[in-house]
Amino acid sequence: MAVAPEKAPEKAPAQRPPARGAGTVALDWAKKGLALRESSIIVVIVASLVYFGATTPGFFSGWKNLLPYFCFLAIMAAGEVFVMTLGEIDLSIGALWLFTPFMYWKLTSAGIPLLPSVILALMIASLLGGVNGFFTAYVGIPSFVATLAMLFFLDGLALILSHSQQITTPGTSVTQTSTFASVFGAGTYSELIWALVIMGILQVVLTFTRWGIYTVATGGNRLGASEAGVKTRLVVVRNFMLCATTAGIAGILEAVRTSSITPDPSGSNQFLLYAVAAVIIGGTLMTGGEGTVVGAFLGALFIGILQDGLTLKSVNANYLYLWLGIAVIIAMTLYVLVRRIRRGSGRG
Amino acid sequence: MADQAFAGQPIVEPSTAPDDVLRIEHIAKRFGPITALRDINLHLRKGEVLGLLGDNGAGKSTLVKIICGFHKADSGSMWLKGKPYAPKSVLDARAQGVDTVYQDLALVDELSATQNLFLRREQTYRPLPFLAGRKMRREARAALDEIGINIPRIDLPAARLSGGQRQAIAVARAIRDQSEILLLDEPLAAMGAKEGAMILDLIARLKDRGDVSIIMIVHNYVQVFQACDRANLIQDGLITFDKPTAESSVDELNEIVVEEYRRARQAEMSGNGEASRYNAA
What we know:
heterodimer; A: mainly alpha; two-stranded antiparallel sheet; 2 strands; B: alpha/beta; Rossmann fold; globular
């Protein structure tokens, strides 16, 4: 299993361990971070790369084809990590992914320039996330229910705003790519760069800032955290807002990349499920208190590899679901077991 | 009023010492029809460890929750270092230097010992928002050394610490907060002999420092005599016993409790037991 072999436990706890060099500390860190959570997804990714690389001609040479499959998922998953680390779930990110581009389109139609429209649309998305958080933290509705309501509400709103018609994304054209478009998703690597930057920032926020510590504390022991003075409700609202914002970003990037927006709730909710799967495969349990943004990125990458590889092999999409199902349950089982070992025997 | 209702039951009258940090007089608290505390008089001297004894339901926890700001008393008054003390909330009480340590509640399993110790008091590389991890680890180590607690690896998640170590971290956190009065809710419950000894050691060390005063709820009479300077016994919402542990014994305490039980039985027999007791308050 993925448990790292550890040094023998200190036998005489009477003295503190000797000071360790920066290298050992870094190694310890690497062990701690990777050994338990992300290692299995890395193994799985390498295995799937080897498999598709060996059996599918053109898999590696056409690696760029992989990007559209996973980059926007990674962005959605990054935000969802913050919610699932709380032990909550946001089911409305698919709907937000769909709705935010329509909001952006409406704003530009009202004469607002492109960039301010993007920013405004994202602020609206974040406010909607705040509504999710408010109902969850202050009204006391389970997040599953609160965000389910938001899902239907926004799907409906998106259909109403668009009159169920596909529209052309403002600021894009099929014949030429403007600077705006290439920055916001249409450039070959643009989504990848967004995904990497967002992953980097959010992982740092989760591990190295108060926001992250309070997220873990709120997810791990809400009563204890608030006893210690953490404003747990505020943390919940804040994380839902963050999650909604990343979903909005992903939605706008996809709309610009494909240069059209289709009001198709079933498609967008498919992506919700992929994003949640990516978070879980990556090692963020919904049990609360544990989360990894890098893991979610890797989870999304794995889903992208499956989609791309199976498409190239011209296998029909049903296999994707099959493998995804197996991956999710294996991932979850593995983490639960690792957790049990960690807690049970008192060493990892 | 309480005296009339309980002729025969000794009640500790308000008393004070010159070096009191906390003084409580005539505190009463009802929850609907149930009277939890009737007339509580209690004082705590600087650097003292006061053991709070009493059966389940006698009112120990209610009293502690009033002192720590969780409940408000219906009547009565409290003084903290000579000034009127009426905490609006747990946070308010903490800001005034009164902190409670719960055994199970306090720590977040997923955070490390250091992170728990610094929860809500994190240090950052100002003006950057990043946590000063190494600095906090160093200070955590120093803070734990200071109160004589050895935790071999403070980077480990709290889930992997023992009950005693967890308690110690919670205490260390309260002390780092400049708390002057610590309320310990059954610090020795559900703890093995070794762990219990460690906590008793910790309490003794705090006593030596002299700047922290402690009220602890204890069940075990023997432990009261090991850890506390003075013992108070709560029975039916009244403090009925207040003596330095040096002048008392386990037997005396036992005697009082057995006596109370007999009296309760008698009241029940004569048929007007519970009704008259609660109505009186």
